Amino acid sequence: MVAVLEDPVRRRLYDYVARQPDGVSRSEAAQAVGIQRTLAAFHLDRLAEAGLVSVTFRRPAGRTGPGAGRPAKRYQRSMTEHQVSVPPRDYRRAAELLAEVVDITGAEPQLQRSARSRGAAAGRAARRDDPRQTEGELVVAALTGQGYEPYRDGADIRVRNCPFHVLADRYPPLICGMNLAMLEGLLEGAAAKALQARLDPRPGDCCVVVRDVGGGF
What we know:
Distance between the termini: 38 Å
Structural class: alpha+beta
Largest sheet: 4 strands, antiparallel
Strand order of the largest sheet: 4-5-7-6
């Protein structure tokens, strides 16, 4: 699995596909990374074989009926989670057990305090790294460093990846509340006073959005 991404061209293609909200064609991917379509097709299919991207077939917008041609092959990041550990480790099971205990015992306030503290530390670190950035730039950098894959959506910063995706599926209120507390702490630590973190679930995205409420961009 890891070896599949060792090729630099393949890694660039994967990174491009992972950043797109919808599936991309071979031509779009090839143009984005500056290679020939046939080479892009080869690498994209290797990524699909490894389970890192999923494949769908779709006709171009506006084309229907018998004369519309064959549906085009499109690629998007697979939602399947992959973990590699040598020697074997089972951190997911430990995380699920801990989440279950927190859920059963009603320890959400303690979890959120810890998450807010961890987020604040990440925000302070981002501010120290480059204090010249705008609030929006600083928060995007901090979220990227935490694995959230942020992107701009008008006056919002949304995130494509929830680092706690598997747990969020099993314990939505618990993990979404933790996520919200962590991002609130991050904004506080980064002194991003013009931005607010709010719960705003959207299919395919994390449950938390960072909203510009005072010209932070």
